Amino acid sequence: MLSIEDEITLVEVLVILLGIAVTWAIYYNSDGAELPGEAAEPNPNVPDEKFSTPGRTLD
């Protein structure tokens, strides 16, 4: 059996590891994210792609 102090220490370590895992999951490969102001502007001379979607549309 673990003592209360050991259980608290174990929980603290697990919470720290969970925080590291969440931070890694958020920032892993985030350098490929499109940041505001970096989006490519579409060429106005190229028509929009046409595709149909089933269901209701606003067209």
Short précis:
The protein has 59 residues and is mostly helical. The protein contains one helix and no strands.
Summarize the SSE layout with pairings.
Elements lengths: L3 H24 L32
Descriptors:
59 residues, mainly alpha, 1 helix
Give structural notes.
The chain is mainly alpha-helical and 59 residues long. 41% of the residues lie in helices and 0% in strands.
End-to-end gap: 67 Å
Q: Approximately how much helix is present in the residues? A: 40-55%
Low-pLDDT residue intervals, each spanning 5 or more residues: none
Radius of gyration: 24 Å
Average predicted confidence as pLDDT? 83
The number of distinct helices, counting runs of at least 4 residues, comes to 1
β-sheet strand percentage: under 5%
Shape: elongated
The SSE order reads: H
Number of strands: 0
